[in-house]
Amino acid sequence: xxxxxxxxxxCGDHKWGRFRVHCNKEYRTGETCGMKLIYEVxxxxxxxxLCKKKDVIWRKIGQASERVQRWESEGINPASTEKExxxxxxxxxxxxxxxxxxxSKMRTV
Length: 109
Known about the structure:
alpha+beta; 2 domains; three-stranded mixed beta sheet; 2 helices; 51% helix; 21% strand
């Protein structure tokens, strides 16, 4: 139950900051008990790194989807279209992994 600063992002995610105060349970000098309590919260208007990654991946998916539609309407090489579809599936799996990371991080609070 040692106290730490916490940084809250605009997306609702958080990041632990620097150590502030020892609790009564820890008697060893320089050691912490392992439990983190909030000493002070600082809110920032930016989003966390995971949300930035998600935004980048969504833009990639949008651009790739537009290319696939254009290539299909123009009748361009079907192999390229299939390769682009596989890329979209890989990015969607990355999005699921990022969402899982965010949910598991929120459960540990």
